[in-house]
């Protein structure tokens, strides 16, 4: 196994490169790819930057140039449903590009000529990510997030959810928009800007992949402020611990 680990932003991958054994940096296509060993696993860590094209470019490079056999995307997301709260963790089972619309040529959300609107993540990876996230919340949350920060975000017993994640080239920050997305895409748990692009690349190249997201905001008018605060003080800690739990399995 060679695991490619992608995040959009530095904060979402904090600590992972530092934890690598024999890290080696290679620059390609304006991105730094760090190869090395992460808890006994052969890994490549990279920041994709934000958006579907950036993520697709990065995922393709990981497979074609770095020979990864599996891809894991870790980062933050906006909540797509009232019962998914800030601080919860969402593991994607399916991903949809919520801004894809080639209708009337193709059905709404369908990626033309793939026949698919929803791309499934690897079942085994989703299962292992769910277990890793649950173990982190049960055993290591206290170590990762100090009580003061938890209070700022009113994080009460965060939970792990599995289901549909929507991706689009849009930071969702209006209540009407997130409600419309939720109504159009039944089961939507979270919105972000990269996962479904990685999903399409991995589907086309036959690479198993997983996407795990910590909820940073409610994709409403407060989303930008919540996101900025959360990504720095909380999300940054989740990734390291969850990926360590995942690699240890
Ligand atoms: N990532 C984190 N929060 C988000 C939001 N509200 N919209 C899109 N991507 C996000």
UniProtKB/TrEMBL annotation:
Query: Which residue range or ranges hold the Nucleoside phosphorylase domain?
Result: 2-237
Mind listing the GO molecular function terms for this protein? adenosylhomocysteine nucleosidase activity
Query: According to its UniProt record, what is one Pfam family this protein matches?
Result: PNP_UDP_1
Question: What pathway does the UniProt record associate with this protein?
Answer: Amino-acid biosynthesis; L-methionine biosynthesis via salvage pathway; S-methyl-5-thio-alpha-D-ribose 1-phosphate from S-methyl-5'-thioadenosine (hydrolase route): step 1/2
- Signal peptide positions are none
Keywords assigned: Amino-acid biosynthesis, Glycosidase, Hydrolase, Methionine biosynthesis
EC code(s) of this entry: 3.2.2.9
What InterPro entries does the record point to? Answer: MTA_SAH_Nsdase, Nucleoside_phosphorylase_d, Nucleoside_phosphorylase_sf
NCBIfam families noted in UniProt: MTA_SAH-Nsdase, PRK05584.1
**What name does UniProt use for this protein?**
adenosylhomocysteine nucleosidase
């Amino acid at each position: 196994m060679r695991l490619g680990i992608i995040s959009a932003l530095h904060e979402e991958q904090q600590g992972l490169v530092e934890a690598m054994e024999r890290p080696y940096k290679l620059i390609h296509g304006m991105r730094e790819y760090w190869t090395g060993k992460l808890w006994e696993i052969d890994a490549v860590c990279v920041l994709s930057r934000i958006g579907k094209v950036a993520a697709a470019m990065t995922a393709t490079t990981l497979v074609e140039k770095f020979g990864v056999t599996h891809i894991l995307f870790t980062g933050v997301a906006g909540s797509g449903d009232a019962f998914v709260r800030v601080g919860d963790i969402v593991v994607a089972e399916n991903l949809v590009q919520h801004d894809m619309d080639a209708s009337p040529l193709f059905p709404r959300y369908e990626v033309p000529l793939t026949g698919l609107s929803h791309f499934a993540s690897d079942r085994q990876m989703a299962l292992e990510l769910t277990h890793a996230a649950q173990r982190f919340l049960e055993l290591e949350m206290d170590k990762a997030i100090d009580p003061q920060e938890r209070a700022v975000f009113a994080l009460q017993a965060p939970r792990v959810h599995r289901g549909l994640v929507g991706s689009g080239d849009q930071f969702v920050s209006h209540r009407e928009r997130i409600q419309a997305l939720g109504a159009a895409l039944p089961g939507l748990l979270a919105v972000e800007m990269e996962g479904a692009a990685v999903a399409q690349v991995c589907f086309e190249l036959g690479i198993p992949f997983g996407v795990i997201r910590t909820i940073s905001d409610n994709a409403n008018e407060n989303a930008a402020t919540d996101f900025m605060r959360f990504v720095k003080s909380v999300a940054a800690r989740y990734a390291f611990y969850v990926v360590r739990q995942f690699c240890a399995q």
